[in-house]
Amino acid sequence: MKKLIGLLILLITYIIAFLSGLLVTILLKDSLTLLIAVFIGNVIATIIVWLVGVLFQSASVYDPYWSVQTLLISLSLLIYYRNWNIGNIIYILCLSFWAIRLTINFLNNFSDISYIDWRYKLIKSKAGKFFQVVNLLGICLVPTIIVYLASLPFFLYIIENRQFEVANIFGLFIMLIGTMLELFSDLDMVKFKKRRHDNTEIIDIGLWKYSRHPNYLGEILFWYGVLLTYLFSSSFTFGKWYVLLGAILNNLLFLFISIPLAENNLKTYKPGFEEYKKKTRKLLPIKEQNRFSNRKEIGLASKILIY
Q1: Residue ranges of the domains in the chain?
Q2: How far apart are CA 101 and CA 216, in angstroms?
Q3: What's the alpha-carbon Rg for the chain, to the nearest Å?
Q4: DSSP conformation letters of 221-275
Q5: Using CA atoms, how far apart are residues 147 and 70, in angstroms rounded to an integer?
Q6: Would you call 80 exposed, middle or buried from its count of C-beta atoms within 10 A (0-12, 13-18, 19+)?
Q7: Is residue 70 scored above 50 in pLDDT?
Q8: Distance, CA of 118 to CA of 111 (rounded, Å)
Q9: What is the dihedral sign for C-alpha 130, 134, 135, 141?
Q10: H-helix or E-strand containing 123?
Q11: Alpha-carbon dihedral angle through residues 167, 99, 284, 205, given to the nearest 10 degrees
């Protein structure tokens, strides 16, 4: 019952946030460019979600925003422009597959409205009385901005009424590969949790046998796929260089914040984590090259493969 009530609160929160953001966008679209109006509406929606999180003392109220933000904005743009061509339909289907997987993953971990992800608990312990400021800026607004920037290629694809081209298939394929990596990582994790004896054990099955973060790799690939689908359109010009920012910032977010945070936490309660770390790559799910006993001897190009 607690989970059901919690989900109902989340649903009402997100409906209010979406309608508020949509209203702000409509009010601003004639005085600002549409993308800027959408961005401001997106920020307003994020703040509403954050306020509900403050009310219930749970930063995880924001967690589903990752999966619904791009999908809802994209569907709104498609309805507004009526650009239901084959390219947009295929694009939105790939996006929906990603969004549904991410949402289901959240729901599997969600217990009730008081649920808080371990990362937020860690941040709260360090931020102290400034936590709600860190929550708004770091946990909510920064991800919102990065996901918005990463979504710009698709938004522009819709606004500019791009027609489907054979070259677009490559980007869509990368999106699907990324989502499948995340899905298989989730399934491996579910299987592992059923068989483990306690949480000190380290997952060593499926993709996790070769990669410490195959789910993060999938997320990184997905957004590069979104970008490539737009870049491979014949009418793309480098005057719109800003479409590159989102995928790159998302990549950096995982490499320098999410992954270090996760690994620093794992080694505090998993005794064998350092050994596991030596045997597996950070991201790419391929076997370690044993002949490289000293990574300092590897050239720059080879070092990249460590990930």
Answers
A1: 1-158, 165-245+257-307
A2: 14
A3: 20
A4: HHHHHHHHHHHTSTT--GGGGGGGHHHHHHHHHIIIIIHHHHHHHHHHH-TTHHH
A5: 7
A6: middle
A7: yes
A8: 13
A9: positive
A10: helix 118-127
A11: -140
